[in-house]
């Protein structure tokens, strides 16, 4: 039986702006029944948005910490709720994930898998030893494994369109000021987890590299620092990475752009360069664009120029990952969003923050 | 007395296409009298170009290895030649520099200072202990220390226009194929020195960073590899660098772009990002363009936006460095192009080629 009856735990920006529209596209496949937030006000506001966006005939049931009769435990005791989507602040996630699993619910939790590798490893071990065997599904959401654009880029590489991967770049330069809606999330303004925005946002970049590159990330060396006072503890990582197949790349992550134009100039993108071509992945207006350039050769193998193929895919990763999660709860597991594979995203950020220029073995660090 | 009487040792592409036009701009300040090349044909061709470009009434004297009566030693024995410009293949340079110094000539030699740090260090030690005290000048050319554009970028930073330097990027992505004039220089096609194009061309990038950044490069960690079979031993470096002041940056050097568009997409440039703004240096059509973006603030210090100032400077570094060299031979040394300071450019490439992801102390490596 698929987990039709769903509760969402967390009612912040991402739950409202990303999850609700994604759930709306899924129609009858999912029935969002309840919302939990620490505050009554936030949960209630979300419930109204949900009723509106999902065109529900009646409001969501609202749970929060202000009334013991409407607590998270009460929500988790409901038998008509088979699964929860957890979209809470990073440090709150692990204990809520465990609580939900203990209550017998399937869990789709927002990235990162945990605030640090050690907690992530412990969480995965507990899940696998105690809950997986009981048929409970736990997956880590929003890590681009289900995103059609990144998957298309991976296929282009696997099809040999750029030859053997030689080197790559991933560049994310963001401008954040005191007015940013993300900055104004209380838990982001004073982060109680390593890296601040670098962990919260940086895991996306590493996840996309993990999806796009055919070979696993193996070693990272990095320097990390704080460029912008309002974004402690750190906002910038300059990293080099080597993959198992010997290819290597540069990863630039910063939320510390001093002005808007610095972020514009960088034009956040991923390029992968191979022996027979290269590809560039850019994102704009909800569409991912992959430009694949391939060397053309004459019959003697001499290069005669290049072709360009453009692949465009709508960004529907959240919708797809919820669909995949629902199928998994119905016994049809496609392996997407497995917590084990997402641990390397956290490992990368943790390694980069602590590297101080020295190489860190990501495979060893992310080993469960 | 300034060294008016000059010989040029080497008659390749760069001597013809860069040095001759630069010398032409200097008028009476310099008198190019002779050329030496290993082959008579190459030296004679250069002599004709020189007569044409410099509008000389009589041809240069031609020296080469094919006739003992016209050897380099014979050239260096001439008392009317006070200085030589050495533009020979990388591995030939050190012994020719020493030979010229031993003959009592001032020397302006092309970068890199030497094929590797060990030879560079030995060369500098020998110069300083035996020849500097006799008043002979030796400088390392074409390392951008005299380039007005890079100097203007440095001044903008020193003037505080971007605040404290936080992080930076230097990106050089080149497309080279079998038809490239640079590839078809015999000594570049089968390089007998570390790094191939990475040393030959990469030292330029490191030199420009050295000129632009107010703080010295201290530590580099890198991965190096060969992306394009025709460019052994290596053609690609991905590096992270940390400076003495704690700022850090990414350096991407490759001659292994698989197609022309990959190089175009990269748009070779340097960006320096600070706490109060950022600047970008780009080069096109002989002009260096520095766009300086500075945060504007209201009276309470709150950011209100940004200004952009564009500085454009013609690329005249080679002319300027020859002028500076001539002044130095006349006893007025401005410190530009000192061999000691250029040793770090070679040290960077050598460190990056051997780093394998581990940090290398550039200050220690480049210590004479």
From TrEMBL, chains A, B:
<comment type="similarity">
    <text>Belongs to the Gfo/Idh/MocA family.</text>
</comment>
<dbReference type="GO" id="GO:0005737">
    <property type="term" value="C:cytoplasm"/>
</dbReference>
<dbReference type="GO" id="GO:0000166">
    <property type="term" value="F:nucleotide binding"/>
</dbReference>
<dbReference type="InterPro" id="IPR036291">
    <property type="entry name" value="NAD(P)-bd_dom_sf"/>
</dbReference>
<dbReference type="InterPro" id="IPR055170">
    <property type="entry name" value="GFO_IDH_MocA-like_dom"/>
</dbReference>
<dbReference type="GO" id="GO:0016491">
    <property type="term" value="F:oxidoreductase activity"/>
</dbReference>
<dbReference type="InterPro" id="IPR000683">
    <property type="entry name" value="Gfo/Idh/MocA-like_OxRdtase_N"/>
</dbReference>
<dbReference type="GO" id="GO:0006740">
    <property type="term" value="P:NADPH regeneration"/>
</dbReference>
<feature type="domain" description="Gfo/Idh/MocA-like oxidoreductase N-terminal">
    <location>
        <begin position="5"/>
        <end position="130"/>
    </location>
</feature>
<protein>
    <submittedName>
        <fullName>Oxidoreductase family protein</fullName>
    </submittedName>
</protein>
<dbReference type="Pfam" id="PF22725">
    <property type="entry name" value="GFO_IDH_MocA_C3"/>
</dbReference>
<feature type="domain" description="GFO/IDH/MocA-like oxidoreductase">
    <location>
        <begin position="150"/>
        <end position="280"/>
    </location>
</feature>
<dbReference type="Pfam" id="PF01408">
    <property type="entry name" value="GFO_IDH_MocA"/>
</dbReference>
